[in-house]
Design goal:
The protein is α+β, with helices and mostly antiparallel strands. It contains 10 helices and 4 strands, in the order H-H-H-H-H-H-H-H-E-H-E-E-H-E. Helix 1 (2-39) crosses helix 4 (82-101), helix 2 packs parallel to helix 7 and helix 6 packs across helix 7 (156-175).
């Protein structure tokens, strides 16, 4: 009986997460098709590249999204774990379909800054729903993950920043410097909104993780996520068993990835998550006394 309840709960959670993916990618497509494409602002990613190529060669955005992601998924089939691959593939299929079928509609106000804010908030909400389903929409996320598989000394966020930066620079060359500055504003808003959607508006998250696979998980946090982790030896009060507890400070988005990886490795792991009001150091805010 208990096993049946657990199975039903697991199925229910899976269905909810795929609904999150569908809704999130729909909102993302609305942001791209009705906002960013019309105001000619490139915020990086495969969709940003799609906006550029549509402007230059009139190639439909969904076609660019397929062409950009297809080789990545072929490579990722051998590199990514099954769950991440399937969810990211589903998210990208949904996004491609929505990019192709979302009809043109005038939702813009005519004020460029207001329209960019609208698109950024919509994109952040869409990404937030996708991230909460432990997925990504493919594109530069997937490319950065694959590059990290071979270039371990560079973290995924750093690789993504480089790829997205190149796409934004190309956008500046096509649409002009003013649109590039607006793109930076959009990226900032998208990041803040998506982080808030994932796990509240906190600057950073503090994770305490007790697991039987602390060595493997700490390697994942260090080499893949690009964050540091501290091992603390703890002793169970009831069992008197000794284990290593990992402590790390990460962003909201990174927290989702680490949480998913933790329970893939060790379903019996214990994880505590807290909000950090301020975080200083590499990857966060530089302290200025």
């Amino acid at each position: 009986m208990e096993q049946n309840k657990m199975n039903k709960s697991r199925i229910g959670n899976t269905v909810k997460e795929y609904l999150y993916i569908a809704f999130g990618t729909f909102v993302m497509s609305v942001a791209v098709v009705l906002c960013f494409d019309n105001v000619e602002v490139v915020v990086g990613g495969a969709t940003g590249l799609a906006i550029i190529l549509k402007k230059l060669f009139n190639i439909p955005m969904w076609v660019v999204n397929v062409a950009f992601n297809l080789p990545l998924f072929i490579i990722g089939l051998k590199v990514l774990d099954k769950q991440s691959f399937v969810r990211t593939l589903v998210a990208n299929i949904f996004l491609t379909i929505f990019l192709g079928v979302t009809p043109q509609a005038n939702i813009l106000t005519g004020d460029l800054l207001v329209d960019i804010i609208l698109g950024s908030v919509l994109m952040g909400i869409g990404l937030g729903f996708v991230f909460r389903a432990y997925a990504s929409s493919g594109g530069t996320d997937l490319m950065a993950t694959l590059i990290n598989h071979w270039i371990r000394y560079m973290s995924i966020p750093k690789i993504m920043a480089i790829i997205d930066g190149v796409i934004v620079v190309i956008g500046v060359g096509v649409f002009g410097l003013t649109k590039g500055i607006y793109a930076l504003i959009a990226i900032f808003i998208v990041t803040k909104v998506s982080d808030g959607m994932v796990e509240g508006p906190g600057r950073a998250k503090l994770l305490y993780i007790i697991t039987n696979d602390s060595d493997k998980l700490s390697q994942y946090i260090t080499n893949v996520v690009g964050r540091g982790a501290t091992k603390i030896q703890v002793t169970g009060a009831f069992t008197d068993n000794k284990k290593n507890m990992l402590m790390c400070v990460v962003s909201s988005r990174e927290m989702v990835k680490i949480k998913q990886k933790t329970y893939q490795m060790d379903p019996s792991a214990i994880c505590f998550i807290g909000d950090i009001r301020e975080a200083f150091g590499e990857g966060f805010t530089t302290y200025k006394g």
